[in-house]
Design brief:
The complex is a heterodimer. By secondary structure, chain A is mostly beta strands. Chain A is globular, with a radius of gyration of 14 Å. In chain A, strand 7 and strand 8 form a beta hairpin. By secondary structure, chain B is mainly β. Chain B is 0% helix and 45% strand. In chain B, strand 7 and strand 8 form a beta hairpin. The termini of chain B are far apart. Classes of the chains: A mainly beta, B mainly beta.
Chain lengths: 115, 112
């Protein structure tokens, strides 16, 4: 059973539109993340959240907005979509402690194509 | 900021030959180093993680040694298998809340 559920698996959007990517984790972790993987760049950190609180934001554009309605839920809203936003978006989670270096678990990703 | 470099984009090996994928890093602090493996259309999964006590991590026949003097964490395996074909990412983390910095990735293709 997948422990990190991402929906949808595939998504096609029109330039200028808005989409929401869904993520839920059932690992009981205290931290959740979004990463992006595109053809031009490797896996790239976007956001980290803990108990619905934003911990780090490495996304320059305000068009990307994470939304957390529950502590095991972290959606990603993307507005004014551009073709360059085409990528696979991975939701991830981990159980963080003060020591750092904990294992990050990834969902299977949402592949977004903007036309 | 932190960075991770993987010099090989694509490595093609014959089954049974040894594997070595390069990884070097730059960091202000002493980061944790990781190898993640991603099979086609799957999620990245942790393969190995560096230890703080200089022990050598091993998993599924793969091992890696953290060399702080050369800032390297190369991935090795004595004998490649067809099932090892995948995308391998080296990553570092210097902080909590696991902001992982990934290298460009190395695509390993093992052929008969």
């Amino acid at each position: 059973d997948p422990k990190i559920i991402q929906k949808p698996k595939y998504l096609v959007a029109v330039t200028g539109s808005e989409k929401i990517l869904i993520c839920e984790q059932y690992l009981g972790h205290n931290a959740m993340y979004w990463y992006r993987q595109s053809a031009k760049k490797p896996l790239e950190f976007m956001f980290s959240y803990s108990y619905q609180k934003l911990m780090d934001n490495q996304t320059a554009s305000s068009r990307f907005q994470p939304q957390s309605s529950k502590k095991n839920h972290l959606d990603l809203q993307i507005t004014a979509l551009k073709p360059d936003d085409s990528a696979t978006y991975f939701c991830a989670s981990s159980q963080e402690d003060r020591g750092g270096g904990t294992e990050v678990f990834f969902g299977k990703g949402t592949r977004l194509t903007v036309v | 900021g932190d960075s991770v470099t993987q010099t090989e984009g694509l490595v093609t090996l014959t089954e049974g030959l040894p594997v070595m994928l390069n990884c070097t890093y730059q960091s202000t602090y002493s980061p944790f180093l990781f190898w993640y493996v991603q099979h086609l259309n799957e999620a990245p999964k942790l393969l190995l993680k560096s230890f703080t006590d200089n022990k050598r991590p091993e998993h599924q026949g793969f091992h890696a040694t953290l060399h702080k003097s050369s800032s390297s964490f190369h991935l090795q395996k004595s004998s490649a298998q067809l099932s090892d074909s995948a995308l391998y990412y080296c990553a570092s983390s210097s902080s909590s809340f696991s902001k992982l910095v990934f290298g460009q990735g190395t695509s390993l293709s093992v052929v008969p």
